[in-house]
Amino acid sequence: MELLRLRFDEQVRGEKRTVLRFHPDVAPLKVAVLPLLKKREDIVATAHAITSELRQTMLAAYDETGAIVAASIVAIAAFGLRQGIDLVGGSLWQTTFAASVTESAVRDALTSAVPEREVSVEQESDGGFLIRLPSIPHEEYVIYRSALEKLEGFREQNFSNIGPTIGSELRRKAVWAIVLVLLGISLYVAFAFRKVSEPVRSWKYGVVTLLTLFHDVVIPTGMLAVLGAWRGIEIDTNFIVALLVVMGFSVHDTIVVFDRIREHLLHARGRQVDLAAVIN
Q1: How many C-alpha atoms does 1 have within 13 Å on its Cβ side?
Q2: How far is residue 75 from each of residues 70, 81, 86, 238, measured CA to CA in Å?
Q3: For residue range 100-139, what is the model confidence (pLDDT) as tens digits?
C-alpha cells in the first residue's frame, strides 16, 4: 500500500517545489511531521522511516490475522460444533428446584421413570437444571413430569421438543442458505466487473470476495467450537442467521472497495494501468 508519495520539482503556481503527499489513512501525521522538515533530505528520510514503520505494523497485523484464522480452523477440526436441538432434534427441558435438590437426584428421578431412555442433566450457574432427552412423545413427557414433581420445589421454565426429521431439514436448509449466498455473491461480483476484466479477470474478484468472507466467518465459528467444548454452548438457527449477517456486512465492505477500483479502471481504459497504485 502506497502510504507516502514524493514528487520533486513539481510545478505549483509556476514555481518548482518538493511535494510530499500523504495517504488519507495517515494524513493526520503531517501536522506533526511537516514543521520538522527543513531540506529535501529530511523529507526523504522521514518518508522512508514512516513508510517502513507502517509497513511493519501492517505485516504484523497480517501475521496476527493469519494466526487467528489458523487457530479457528484447528479448533473446528479438533472440537467440532456442538449442535443444538434445532439442528439434530431432541427435547430440551429447563427446570428449577429447591436448593437441596442435587443433579444426581434429578437424573435418578428421570432414569427411574423411563429406564430405557438416555438422559443428560446439567446444573447451570443460576441453580437451574438443563435436561436433554431424545425426541419424546407427549405420553413420556407426562411420565417424566410426574417424576420431577415429586422433587422439592419443581418448576418448569421451558420445554422444547423437535423431531429428528425437522432437525435434519433445518440443518440441510441452513447449509443450502450459506452455499447459495456464497454462490450469489461470487456471481454478482464477477458480473459487476465484467467490463474491467483487465489487468485482472473479473472472476478473480469473486474469488477474493470469497476469501474475505471465509476469514470473517471462520473466526466466530472457531470461537463457538471452543466455547462448545469448554462451556457446552450449542449452535442453533440463531447462529446460522448471525453468520449470514456477518457475511452481509463483510461483502458490503469488500464491494465498496472493489467499486472504487472498478471506477478507476474504467477511467483508465485503453491506457497502461498500475493496478497496485489503483488499489492503494
Answers
A1: 15
A2: 9, 9, 22, 21
A3: 888 888 888 888 888 878 788 888 877 788 888 888 888 8
DSSP H helical segments within the chain, as ranges? 30-33, 40-79, 85-88, 103-113, 138-148, 164-192, 202-231, 237-267, 275-279
Cβ proximity of 200 and 189 under 8 Å: no
| Residue that has been written with the C-alpha cell 428421570 in this structure | 110
Strand partners, 123: 129
CA dihedral 137→142→148→149, nearest 10 degrees, is: 160
Distance (Å, rounded) from C-alpha 98 to C-alpha 112? Answer: 20
d(CA 91, CA 136): 7
Q: Is the confidence at residue 13, as pLDDT, over 90?
A: no
CB-neighbour burial class of residue 159 (10 A; exposed 0-12, middle 13-18, buried 19+): middle
- Paired with 233 in beta bridges are none
Least confident of 10-24, 53-67, 191-205, 251-265: 10-24
For a pLDDT cut of 90, what percent of the chain falls above it? 8
Backbone torsions φ then ψ of 166, nearest 5 degrees: -65, -40
Contact 221, 72 (CB under 8 A): yes
- DSSP 3-state of 270: coil
Spatial distance between the Cα atoms of 220 and 153, rounded to a whole number of angstroms: 39
Residue with cell 435418578: 108
Question: How many residues belong to the chain?
Answer: 280
User: How many CB atoms lie under 10 A from the CB of residue 102?
Assistant: 14
Residue 229 pLDDT exceeds 80: yes
